[in-house]
Amino acid sequence: MEVKELIAKEIENVPEPYLIEILDFIRFLETKALERKMELALASETSLKKDWLKPEENEAWKDL
To answer: How far is the C-alpha of 31 from the C-alpha of 39, rounded, in Å?
Structure first.
């Protein structure tokens, strides 16, 4: 049985107040993952910025 199926099975027996907490936690994890992606994008931008600003880069991409 896959993890997703196990969670779905277990969730059937969870009391409503805990379901609210579980939903909050799932949303927290989703937000955390999104923030991580944004951090990686910003880090990439910072490290590549020096190359993007070179005149030869502008020349290489001008016809695209």
So the answer is: 12
CB 11 within 8 A of CB 22: yes
pLDDT in tens, 13-63: 999 999 999 999 999 999 999 999 998 888 887 777 777 777 777 777 877
Return the structure tokens found at 25: 């936690």
CA distance 37 to 25: 19
Tally of CB atoms within 10 A around 15: 7
Number of domains in the chain: 1
